[in-house]
Amino acid sequence: MSRPLIIDWTACEGRGLCADLLPELIGQDKWGYPQSRSGRTVLVPPELERPARKAVHLCPRLALRLEADAKTRVTG
Amino acid sequence: MTMTAMTPAQGLRMPPDGPRLFAAPNPSLAAHFATYGAIPDVTPAQLLEQVHRSGLTGRGGAGFPTATKLAAVSGKAIVVANGAEGEPASRKDVELLRRAPHLVLDGVEVAARIIGAEQAYVYLRPEVIPVVQQALAERTGGLRITVEAAAEGFVSGQETAVVSRLNSGPALPRFSRYRIFQRGVGGKATLVQNVETLAHLALIARYGGLWFTTAGTADSTGTFLTTVGSSVWEVNHGMTLRQLLTSATGQPAEEWQAVLVGGYHGTWLPLPAALDAPLSREGLELYGTRLGAGVLIPLPSTACGLEFTASIAGYLAAQSAKQCGPCQFGLPELARNLHALAEGRGGTEVIRQTAGLVEGRGACHHPDGTTRMIRSALKVFADDVRLHQHGRCLARIAEPYGGAR
Ligand code: SF4
Ligand code: SF4
What we know:
The structure holds two protein chains of two kinds.
Chain A: E1 3-7, H1 17-21, E2 26-28, E3 34-36, E4 42-44, H2 49-58, E5 64-66
Antiparallel strand pairs in A: 1-4, 1-5, 2-3
Chain B: H1 29-36, H2 44-54, H3 66-72, E1 78-83, H4 92-99, H5 101-115, E2 119-124, H6 129-138, E3 144-149, H7 159-166, E4 190-194, H8 195-207, H9 209-212, E5 223-228, E6 231-236, H10 241-249, E7 256-261, E8 267-270, H11 281-285, E9 295-300, H12 305-318, H13 325-342, H14 349-358, H15 366-380, H16 382-388, H17 394-398
The structure holds iron/sulfur cluster (2 copies).
Residues 7, 12-18, 34, 59-61, 63-64 of chain A line the site of one iron/sulfur cluster (SF4).
């Protein structure tokens, strides 16, 4: 089950650390901001969860969050 | 004015014939009660049932079903009436608050009753604060209603921006892991409703959901407020663009080459091709657009759609809250490229590419709304795009004397 990696655009400063840690999923746009390689949302497959968690913890702006799965995004 | 003339004991009046929101002769409480009567004393569950039946949808732009929104909030919740009206082409909320402040305040009380809120805010443009404060002074009632001045700016009316402002933060869209109906003002569950939606709610509480559906179409019930150019009208859903444009502008529909439906975040429709489009969800779906907050901007055949689109894009770029990189850098780039296009330099491909880079990549819908408007302009003004690339312009051809402007 793939888990969405959510970017807080108000916090991200586009230094691209996440693109370095997760090159399979994230590239950089021409301004340096992370860009999903597969459409809009960054979907993390189980085999890439480790580097994804690392990106979440190392993002200097705390701009990344790994969701449980696509369905539990909004509850209540 | 005596209090006895306004007590709920006056009972229910017959629903008004014709205009619903603009039925009272003046904004006073006496005129309000004389026109609409009092709200019957029914349970929150009964009220919610009537809202459900009415099919009422939000009139702030998103068009979300009001009953669903009401049902999502619970606990010690807060009601916020949103009258920020950040869209510069929209005047309907200001007009409504000037003419029928008590209808909006009734709606706040009805919403509070349904969700069990004890506290409410009305978030208003500064120019209507005096009239609403006067209306509040005329009323008695248990609900605590606080008036707050809305911040300037196109995105200040976005729900998360309103909540941020009421929490003493900046009036900017916020990113949160919670939705505001879970945690909003003061961390409490919060219902933000556009002031027009609340006014309709006040009438549904009086006359019922079924009555509400006697105006409008099956999928777009009731009346709605629309700003056409600089005037505000209350019209039935389902009226055609032709009817509205001709009666609102007093000019034959042939005068217009296109109309921007839904405001600056809206969609351009070509005229006369779309003149017979009914103003309803289903009617506009065929044209890939929605009413949004009811703003219609007709473009005369003597104006240049590309120039106008470029200037709107410039405005929207300046209104970016500059919190999110793609929005901060992408919107000015879009505006620059549109200006270049209007001046006969550059093409459309670069615009489409940049549009793709900003869509879905912000904390609010500002980038998406902006590109929606721009993409529709490239489609509707496609002939003009070709002419501009040869240093010409449709608007100049249409000028009566063929002259330069
Ligand atoms: S690491 Fe964080 S701040 Fe850096 S580009 Fe990625 S999300 Fe943005
Ligand atoms: S998307 Fe643009 S307008 Fe919306 S919060 Fe981000 S920077 Fe501000």
